[in-house]
Structure prediction request, 222 residues.
Amino acid sequence: MAYKNSGYGLSSAPVSVLAHLLALAITSLLLAWLLHFRGGLSFDSINKQKIFNLHPLFMVIGFILMGGEAIMVYKTMAVKKEAQKATHWVLHLVALISGIIGIYAVFKFHNELHIPNVYTLHSWMGLVTISLFGLQWILGFFSFVFPGSNGSSRTGFLPWHALLGAIIFLMAVCTAEMGIAEKFIFTGLKRAQEALVLNFTGLLIFLFAVCVGLAVILPSSF
Ligand code: HEM
Ligand code: HEM
Prediction:
């Protein structure tokens, strides 16, 4: 999308570097929260919270951070277009699989504790987001990778692919912010170290999303 907006006097390089640093900080804060304050991670445990903990882990690191990095590939990797494209779709596939595992984990947690499913706005937005993400991936794959897709339909679809991709990424970030606020309240947090860790995770996810958005809009430096 950058080619239409090259008048800002800024390239995408500084914002994408900042995005990588934010991704590292978010990963550290999230791991500190889940391992230090929330008791750890497990697919099978009598401590059901450990099963829940897989949900934010896969949704934030696997789905959002990986998805954001995949979007920025065209601005961060100074390699041939084909290599950028391959990295873009593979990272998005990893994000999609992580998202599916993360959602499976929270359903498992709900079912084992007999908590009703899909009763919050967060869960509705979450299911719409992962479904659109899956659809976007399939459409992207068949339009740009699958042999036989023709050049002019690819060119026509490209701006729509970029726009819808950015919207779906935004939906994922909104869903995660809602999930963080929900968990904060369910856990009964007030002013505490854990509250700061969780709130800062949410703030940095927002900043990461801003950087990804800017990286898409600004022209690359190569
Ligand atoms: C893009 C990221 C995310 C998506 C797509 C997503 C999706 C979902 C879905 C579909 C459910 C419903 C499961 C069910 O009904 O059995 C759910 C539940 C839940 N999620 Fe997330 N989630 C995301 C991120 C997060 C994060 C970062 C947190 C917080 C740490 C979180 C906290 C929760 C909580 C507390 C529930 C149980 C209550 C409820 O159903 O709303 N989620 N999530
Ligand atoms: C859910 C998955 C996907 C999302 C969210 C997504 C999102 C995006 C976004 C936001 C852009 C704009 C990047 C920029 O202009 O800097 C983009 C570009 C692009 N994507 Fe995807 N994408 C996804 C899957 C795929 C797949 C599977 C392919 C298959 C190869 C693909 C191929 C491309 C191509 C060729 C571009 C154009 C790069 C250019 O010439 O500027 N995408 N995508």
About this structure: DSSP finds six helices and no strands in the chain. Residues 62 and 94 are 7 Å apart (CA to CA). The mean pLDDT is 95.
